[in-house]
């Protein structure tokens, strides 16, 4: 089964999506100025994941859609109408303000019903020297560059490698390659 990756704009959008789909794998664009690094990461994930673009119903959201579709032309697009995405004070528009039922309805046709979690744990990260050690950050950075998954902190790194179904053995191999340099 192909896993789904949801492209959304911010952490509050991701939190809202996770209230409906607790194991959803999201990539946050951090607004409309989506970085080339994030676009590369989404493109890399598209090799193993179904990409679902779920951005705010406004012009910055449309800019993000357009940029993601340039690198992943076959991405699915989920939409919500602007009128249900308006904040209580009527000053902001965003997925984070939409009712949970509407978010579920918008994503339900695209998202995998059984989103699997990866098998690696934070303990595996510590065992491999990828968290809590003097060179952990450098090792994560090296692996992240090889996998095109951005430059994440330990928690996000774990989430991203699990989304790619990277095994502990593959991590050991990648660490070996980095240490040879």
What report would you give on this structure?
A four-stranded parallel sheet has the order 2-1-3-4. The model has no long low-confidence stretch (mean pLDDT 88). The chain is α/β, with parallel strands linked by helices and 181 residues long. The protein folds into two domains: 106 residues, Dna Topoisomerase Vi A Subunit, Chain: A, domain 2 (3-Layer(aba) Sandwich); 59 residues, no CATH class.
How would you summarize the topology of this molecule?
Layout: E1 3-8, H1 11-20, E2 26-28, H2 36-45, E3 49-53, H3 59-71, E4 76-77, H4 100-108, H5 122-127, H6 136-147, H7 154-163, H8 168-180
Parallel strand pairs: 1-2, 1-3, 3-4
Briefly note the CATH topology name of the largest domain: Dna Topoisomerase Vi A Subunit, Chain: A, domain 2
User: What structural class should be given to the helix and strand makeup?
Assistant: alpha/beta
Rough outline: elongated
* Count of β-strands: 4
What share of residues is helical? 40-55%
Outline the biggest β-sheet: 4 strands, parallel
What strand order characterises the main sheet? 2-1-3-4
Whole-number mean pLDDT: 88
Count of the domains: 2
The helix/strand series, from N terminus to C terminus, equals: EHEHEHEHHHHH
Strand-residue proportion: 5-15%
**Poorly predicted regions:** none
| Rg, alpha carbons | 17 Å
The CATH architecture designation of the largest domain is: 3-Layer(aba) Sandwich
Assigned CATH class of the largest domain: Alpha Beta
Number of helices: 8
State the separation between the terminal residues, measured CA to CA: 36 Å
């Amino acid at each position: 089964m192909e896993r789904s990756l949801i492209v959304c704009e911010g952490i509050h959008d991701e939190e809202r999506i996770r209230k409906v789909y607790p194991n959803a794998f999201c990539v946050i664009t951090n607004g409309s100025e989506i970085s080339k690094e994030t676009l590369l990461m989404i493109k890399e994930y598209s090799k193993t994941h179904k990409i679902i673009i779920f951005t705010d119903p406004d012009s910055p959201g449309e800019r993000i859609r357009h940029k993601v579709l340039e690198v992943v032309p076959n991405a699915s697009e989920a939409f919500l109408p602007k009128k249900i995405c308006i904040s209580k004070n009527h000053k902001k528009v965003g997925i984070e303000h939409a009712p949970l039922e509407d978010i579920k309805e918008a994503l339900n046709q695209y998202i995998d019903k059984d989103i699997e979690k990866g098998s690696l744990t934070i303990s595996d990260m510590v065992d491999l020297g990828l968290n809590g050690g003097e060179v952990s950050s450098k090792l994560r950075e090296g692996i992240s560059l090889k996998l095109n998954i951005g430059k994440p902190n330990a928690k996000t790194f774990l989430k991203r490698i699990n989304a790619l179904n990277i095994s502990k053995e593959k991590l050991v191999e990648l660490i070996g390659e980095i240490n040879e340099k």
